[in-house]
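pls read this stuff:
=====
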Amino acid sequence: MNPFGRSNPQQQSRQRQQAWWEGKKKAKRRRFRVEEEQRQEAASETRGRGTAASTSTVAQPQRAIPPAKPVSTQPGRVRRIGRVFLGGLLLAAAAVMVLAFWPAAIPLFLLGLWVLRPQRRVVETGVASSVDLRYSSDGGQALAFRMQRWNRRGERLSPVAVVMEGKELRGQIRDGDRVEVSGKRGKWGSLDARSVLCLDTGQIVDMKRPGVVASVAGVLMFIISIGLFVLVLAGIFSAIGNAF
């Protein structure tokens, strides 16, 4: 300090530089504290959703996925009830036709047994990959994907090809979704799916098929055609019997 009580210009410059560095350090500490709080909040939200946060693009080994019972109604329950009702109706009609005209009871009885035949329904659980939606020339759609599977010990099983065909797709699945496929075994080990339940979203994905009225009309036409065939066959046998 000079004799007149004023600061040296060099000292003032050092003070301003020191104040600037201290402000920069405070801003850096404040920014680091804010980023740390944001990371902690993101980690807590990730743990709340039940998924692990990971920025790596390398595929992580999947653990076994236990079969989960869907919270919604099984899509095949209505069809199963309708099949049982139709089969019982055909068997009852066959029992009545035995008393009236027994040759007509045989095709009704066989048709009732065919309707009530055991269904080879398969339920598989896994992770969908390579999801592809294709369009056919007749206006139909086909959903195809590969399902990665694991056993209960977490060991990877061979993937299975899943195909679902119909008039119009209802619902959506994406690569990496956990799915439960309901259907039957097709050719070459593939799985012909009737419906796909997305375990991550609870959404049921299926194909729009001909309505109930069209299906019932087709069955009735089939029954009527069989009845007419039996009547014609009975008329032929009756004519042959009268001739002799």
Summary: The CA atoms of residues 84 and 116 lie 6 Å apart. The domain at 120-212 is CATH 2.40.50.140 (OB fold (Dihydrolipoamide Acetyltransferase, E2P)).
